[in-house]
Amino acid sequence: MTLDWTYIQANYDWLGHMLEGLVMAAAVTLIARVLYRWRESAVIGLAFAIGHFHGREKRDHEISVHMPPPHLNGYRMWNWTWDQATDFWPAALLLMVLLYLVLRRKG
């Protein structure tokens, strides 16, 4: 059995971004753990991952529409393509829910 990567890319790209966000948050959390407690490290890791995805999709939008610097209109996320929006929002929402749970926990 061979995997149809074109089908996966077309229909499940958002899932890969969610996994990438979790791995990135975990990596930054481990790096931050050198200086901070686990809870603060998790907040740093999750916030970093959310910001990373916003920055990457903003850059992709700017490139796709040939936007000249300073790229301020790239912050208008409602102008992003459906692909850019579905790359960013599922990962950002997952990471924000995890961030909420970390911050909500007593400790």
Protein described:
Helix 1 crosses helix 2 and helix 1 packs parallel to helix 3. The chain has helices spanning 5-32, 38-64, 82-104. The chain has a domain at 30-88 and 96-107. With 107 residues, it is an all-alpha fold. It contains three helices and no strands. The radius of gyration is 16 Å and the shape is globular.
Q: Structural class from helices and strands? A: mainly alpha
**Main sheet record:** none
What is the helix/strand order? HHH
Mean pLDDT reading: 88
Approximate shape: globular
Give the number of helices: 3
Please estimate the helix content.
over 70%
The span between the termini is 48 Å
| Count of beta strands | 0
Low-confidence runs: none
**Roughly how many Å is the radius of gyration?**
16 Å
Q: Strand content of the residues, in percent?
A: under 5%
Organism: Shinella pollutisoli
Protein name: Transmembrane protein
Transmembrane segments: 12-36, 88-103
Keywords: Membrane, Transmembrane, Transmembrane helix
